[in-house]
């Protein structure tokens, strides 16, 4: 019975607090009087800058500062730290920043130590955006809709900021229907590209070109550029080619639609090659025409020519038969199925 009162007394005694742990980081003895971190903004690839840090002593006695570490591209004249910092003194410490060899968002710092073991180390931070040496006005451009008789041209404009004179070279072979040349100019160079629609294979109505350009900039040895285009025919075939993929499929339909929505007539249609036949005779004038094409044999390919009243030249529609049972001859590679859009790499 005596144990119960003892336990109750022990429960009423407040626990002894654990001794406080000393702060592992001593309190700061300086204040920064300039904005922190220092933002240097957009900097050229060889544009030297200065970052300035205002340091005010809130210590009760003099102390020395010394440099412990510097980020890449920084230099600091330690004569600025030769004399001790007096209580209440404000000193401006400047750091030279050389962005050579750097590119993109950069963050750096100066780490300072003191001769007072009761002080922490101090880190002075800065940031900047280093512009690349070589720039191009756009990595992707478009020729938009192109008429079959046009030869549109556009340029990719390259510039170099600082460093050696800019040198460019084509690192990829352009397609046969493209003319590409590098034209040096004042303050930069142009990659001039011209599309020649008359060199396109029948049925090719759009493309996404991939052009590679090599430079003499160490950080940017290669640029990959993209150029898209689409042929604007007065009569739009849907699909742009007829492909028979199954032996049992012998009939496909080709729809012809006037781009401007106005009626037109099919004057005549003809097949160049064997194994295919057009079933429909020319119909009355209409903004939409339909032709049925029959496969009559095992010929691999032919070309359908459709003469229309609103076309100067006949519309060319490739006809293909991809027989799954056919095997390529030994040592040859089978041709891939045609795609609706042409992509050149």
From TrEMBL:
Keywords carried by this UniProt record: Signal
Signal peptide bounds: 1-20
Protein name: Uncharacterized protein
Region Disordered, annotated ranges: 326-345
